[in-house]
Amino acid sequence: MKLFYGDINGNKVLINDEEQQHIVKVLRMRDGEDIHVTDGKGKLASGKLIIEGKKAGIKVSEIKENLPEFNPKLHIAIAPTKNIDRIEFFVEKAVEMGISEISIIITEKTERKNINIDKIRKQAIAASKQSLRFHFPVINEALKLGDFLKNIDPEHTFVAHCHENLERIDLKNIPQLQQLTFLIGPEGDFSEKEIAFLAENKIKAVSLGNQRLRTETAGVFVAAWNYYNMI
Q1: pLDDT confidence of 212, banded at 50, 70, 90?
Q2: What pTM was estimated for this model as a whole?
């Protein structure tokens, strides 16, 4: 399946401008080829490609709506790494494994404060198309940890940290929920002050195993764990 991104409004389908350029200039697809377009919100249009100069369109033969989402829904709030490539790696792999939402959180030990969210969103769309997802994940603007906590449900939220002297539950003992949120700290982990603050907000601490994982590895690990538990 050749999947592209665009707007679907009733029977009208408009392929995204950048996608059109990719179809015409990079892929050099030909008029009449099979093509599929998703809006990233659960709709899928199928039909034949129409090439008109530098423009690409679709002659629609079928539109499917309300395609199923992944269950359970996973939201990972992760601190950006100093090397942004590592977070981009996390985004790509987590999206392929069905993550529903990604937030960037700024913590005490976060070294990188400036994040190009638009670039991350484009990477999430690319990974969604590659893995044939019809529901694209939400990519939120970066927030300080305290501001992020104002909008979450502590009953469904967990923090993964490496402080072995503090009580943590094993990942395998987390109950199956329809919505899960995990917080992943920066290089150097969350500070003890932040962990105490999270505990005050009734965020439960979880262990990801005996090994100390890098930030992006921990994020991918949680995404893979959730992917395994999907129904």
Answers
A1: confident
A2: 0.93
